[in-house]
User: What shape does this take?
Amino acid sequence: MSEFKRIGIVGCSAPGAALCYQTICTEAAAPVGRKHAHPEVGMHTHPFDAYMRQIEADDWNGVAGLMKSSAEKLAEIGAEFLLTPDNTIHQALDMFRESSPLPWLHIAEEVAAEAKRLGVRRLALLGTRFLMEGPVYPGKLAKQGIEFRVPDKKERERINRFIFDELVLGKVTDEARKYFIGVIERLRGEGCDGVGMCCTEIPLLLRSGDTPLPLLDSTRLLARAAIKKALD
Assistant: This one.
């Protein structure tokens, strides 16, 4: 019998889901001390445009329906717990979390816990416009006693365009990297002492050393929490 529980990934955009899957499969070997060991992983993804139609219509019940549909499919093939490496659609998770066929990890809880561990007092929160203006992170950060700041309206709109016009398509440009770094520097001037990369594609863009502030990689933090839970 495997020492791991089986993980179910509810995918949304492809690059973030792929990075989460890759992290689970490459980092799970170390805690068990066997090269190439990792949990069984199942993934289900509805078409990305199905999610975007619901999100742009502000229909979070519709988003919840897509997520729950994926959850049910993953439960049927033997997953024992679930996660989604997409920050934005977490806005719909609490709508059905109690009625879900399986328990979920929550990406904002993992980021908030890491921010607390690092001693971050004010987090620069970067993500899609829906995420930066939405309810996913404020409560989770407040529970850990952490403040946050988001970019201003024009910055949020441009960051959102970089995410949906480039990053979710796997396109990484120097223009986008320079813009994100500039926003981070401005928020550092407002007292931010950590950066939440709270779109699962941002870790493809920003690298350690791009800013003196610690980068909290929501994708990999969630994947590492999944490895830990799979070993419980």
Remarks:
- The radius of gyration is 17 Å.
- The first helix runs from residue 14 to 27.
